[in-house]
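Q: I'm building a small set of examples for a reading group on sequence design. Run inverse folding on the following structure and report the sequence directly after it, with nothing in between.
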């Protein structure tokens, strides 16, 4: 009996244009880095700005990854996500202030232990706050986007006011741990120690999230739920429980991002999360809602572009990211790496 012919397209059947189209989102970052090198001219300045842009992008990715997964899996537009950034920053910085002897010591072990405890406290509190937020505010408005926007913005305002009540209305200026201050010099370029740490943390977190989503059962359920939730539920999985877990994890990641951004800026305010939401939403949109890889690429593009443009033409830095989002959406209206949902 003759076997049926295999009609699946081979590598040779795929045109060069199609292969380039699929690879282009991943090529945008090296292309931007090369363009930045030629535009800036001075290699040392370019290297400093590139590290700064990567650090900024990694921190934005940490905040945006939870938001994009929540939207992709739960179809929830959560404008209250910025509140978790602010709360995480205040909780983490409060812990660092309380551990002043550790942060002021010239010991990397004590410094990093203080940062770890601050991050753990921030993620625990914001994760718990995220659970309450989902149960009380988000759950009643599932499937109603306009109501979601209204109630989550209201939740953001309430939490910001609670921060004013607990910590006061003034900005809180902070110092980084002693061993994370200053910079190291490489090839004539000064690179801040903390920014290098932020790049490392962001890269490790992205790899960990990618492995969890692709190589674990819970990751498979999350990805399947993003693409076809009703089918996953028909197979007997309690997708609602997964919803809650993803929302809590996304809130905890926002808290981590808040601590890191506070140390990056060396000042925290109640409204810092609200201001960051502009960049977070830009990253989630240009990456493709529901796509962690897209959010990662989008965040690095945003960080690098803002640093390059701020150096070359400071007045254009404020609009550079809006221009980036407009250009990418004109090219790919659903974002660079959108999650294809089942109809």
């Amino acid at each position: 009996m003759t076997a049926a012919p295999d009609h699946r397209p081979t590598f040779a059947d795929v045109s060069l244009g199609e292969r380039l189209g699929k690879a282009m989102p991943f090529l945008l970052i090296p292309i931007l880095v090369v363009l930045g090198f030629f535009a800036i001219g001075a290699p040392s300045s370019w290297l400093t700005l590139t590290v700064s842009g990567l650090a900024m992008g990694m921190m934005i990715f940490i905040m945006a990854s939870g938001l994009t997964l929540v939207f992709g899996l739960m179809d929830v537009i959560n404008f209250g996500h910025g509140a978790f950034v602010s709360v995480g920053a205040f909780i983490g910085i409060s812990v660092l202030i309380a551990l002043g002897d550790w942060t002021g010591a010239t010991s990397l072990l004590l410094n990093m232990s203080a940062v770890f405890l601050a991050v753990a406290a921030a993620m625990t509190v914001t994760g718990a706050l995220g659970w309450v937020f989902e149960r009380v505010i988000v759950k009643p408005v599932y499937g109603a986007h306009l109501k979601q926007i209204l109630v989550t913005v209201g939740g953001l305002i309430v939490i910001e006011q609670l921060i004013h009540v607990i910590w006061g209305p003034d900005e809180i200026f902070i110092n980084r741990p002693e061993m994370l201050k200053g910079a190291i010099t490489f090839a004539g370029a000064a690179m801040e120690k903390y920014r290098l740490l932020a790049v490392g943390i962001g890269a490790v977190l992205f790899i960990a999230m990618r492995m969890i989503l692709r190589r674990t059962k819970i990751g498979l359920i999350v990805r399947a739920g993003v693409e076809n939730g009703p089918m996953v539920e028909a197979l007997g999985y309690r997708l609602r429980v997964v919803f809650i877990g993803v929302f809590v994890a996304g809130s905890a990641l926002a808290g981590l991002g808040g601590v890191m951004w506070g140390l990056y800026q060396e000042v925290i305010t109640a409204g810092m999360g609200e201001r960051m939401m502009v960049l977070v939403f830009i990253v989630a949109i240009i990456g493709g809602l529901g796509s962690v890889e897209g959010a990662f690429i989008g965040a690095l593009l945003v960080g690098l572009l803002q640093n390059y443009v701020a150096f070359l033409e400071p007045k254009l830095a404020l609009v550079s990211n809006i221009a980036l989002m407009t250009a990418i959406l004109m090219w790919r209206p659903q974002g660079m790496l959108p999650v294809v949902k089942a109809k």
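The chain has one domain: 43-331.
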